[in-house]
Structure prediction request, 704 residues.
Amino acid sequence: GSVAKTKTYRAPLDSTDYTTLSMNLAETHAFSGADVSVPLLLSTHLSGKTLHPMEFKLYYDSQYLTFKNISATTGSLLQGMTFETIPVRPGEVLIRTTESRVITGSGLLASLTFSASVVTAVSCSTPYTEDVTLTAGCTRPEISAEPVCLYPPDDAPLVFCSSSAPRELRFDAGLQDYTPNPFQVCAEFTNNGTQDALQGAFQLEYDTTLLELLSQVETFPGVGTDVATGQKATACYTFRARWQPKQALTDICMTASFNNHADVRCCERITLHTVGVVLNCSIDVPDIEIDWGSMTYTPMPFPVTVTVTNSGLLPADNPLVTLNLGAQYTLEFSAPDSPATATKALNPVGPLPPGSSATASYMLRHPLVDTTTRVELEAVVSYRGERCVQQVVIPGIDTTSFRFQLYAAKPLEFCEGLSVQIDAPGGYDSYLWNTGDTARSIFASKSGPYFCTAWYNGQFGRSDTLYVNVLPAPRPIIAVTGSIPLCPGDSLILDAGPGYAIYFWNTRETTQSIVVRDAGEYWVNVTGGNGCPGVSDTVTVSLSPIAEKPIITRDLDLLSSTPARTWQWYRNGQPLSGETNRDLQLSQTGTYVVFITDENGCKAMSDPFDVSVLDIESVEAAVRRFDLYPNPVDGKMSVDIDLDRPQGVVIMVTDMLGRIHALQRFTDVTRLRRQLDLTGYAPGPYIVRLSLARGSISRLLTVQ
Prediction:
């Protein structure tokens, strides 16, 4: 067999993606007139990382200091490395390392030695660096600096402190712990004075709720606890950080006390980052054994339980588990499980609190095998892709007395919806297929392995295995471009989608899409790239009634259309902007039409309507007087009419149902006084209408 493994690396696009490599020129105190050693410390904790050759410019106050050399003494991270130094001018020197070094940890890299001028008062200056570069790698080096303080010559001890510790502890999901953890914090107390510092003692301060002290090593350079001039005492402490549910800052302080020197104190501040969800999973499977009585496995099918535990400090929000069966073709899901249930929610369902566990259960099965087989199960948790693996051992159960071959009547690869007949040889006493069938022949319609066992004269036989591959049938979905129901005269497009080798519509067209103008049912038969046929769903197209032609009427200078859902007016063949209402106020002569859309979305156009005259005078202006009296009336009624000019008129009396009860015509009337005899009219309301050539006016009359 073979094993493949892939790793992916990402190269940063620019230096803004680089991680920072922090270094520090530590604070130093010394008597003037002697050599001064300034530690160069690595603040960033490295775990087996390569520190490539480095270069930087060092600047210092030449009034007080003169650079002598840089060296990596025994015990330093760069122990034994040589350096190249190039003086540029007083107060400036170029420093280069000459080789790469694999670094694990943090602390002293090297020491810079200066000769100090004699001062008469305490004088402090801060060396600094510029143009710090590495020749390779994806880190951005930075060197910070602290003061170098010189004291007037004196016959006394002068102790100062430098310390180192990782600046931050980040949680590593792969290691499931802070890195580094445990970690070390060290302090060096150097005596740059002219007398020994006597009877030294260390005191450690830290937060016990955040840190656990594992070990401590306190070393003095000579006999007892004195620190001789030019020597240093060292205190190193190993801690384990406790996981934090939110980011925390903690200080670790180390103090050295002497009976002839003031206390000297060093502190390191460390950031503890948040520990959120930490998930672990395990897979539990039973031992698979042989039931020699039935020549089967037990248990089979067998249960698989995936347990997920949250050992972090925050709840996991509804994690899912996916069980992968790998490439083994013979391991399958068993009812009630299937490939569709490979991904499951945990039980109990819901967020997984810290310190809690939940499970997902599956049922699997495996056919009989001749030799012992080892099958690998993999569970993947959806939260951060946590994985666990378990091997299942399937024992061999080769007790066959004879073997036989199976025969297929057709190829074992075929299209969905078909099947293939698989036959075992005849003449055996009984048959048992892995499908549960007991006949000599079976019809296989699903993908998978097929094999058979048989008994003959008390002997057990086993067939070879045939593998059936069922090709999926294409299932085209018809996309409709246009509206259903279809308006008379309109069309729509039915599209079966791309990617099929053959199209055949029930209209006998053979293109991917067709244009439809008639009502009916439409479907398409296709042949996929694998040669398998398929049929689409059916699209039913219906037709809407023909939209009624709208009719335009005019009242003075207002055109009106019959009812519709939408209107658009045109004048002289051009659409009128914004004129989309039922009525149109005339402002110009011309030929007008209206396009309407009815409730079914179908369109129709009116006949042309010619407008040759505007500003038609109203009938009310022509009638100066139109009075009826008495009103109510019982018998005869007088009608009094006064018009603006001689013209023909008609007086008509109707009931409320529109039936005419009286009608009189007059010509060349300007003033008219007439009596109408309403004797015998049934009591109730009546309409008296005065009609002119330009219109009519009505009055309501009550008969008692």
Q: What stands out?
A: The mean pLDDT is 88. Helices lie at 619-622. The radius of gyration is 51 Å.
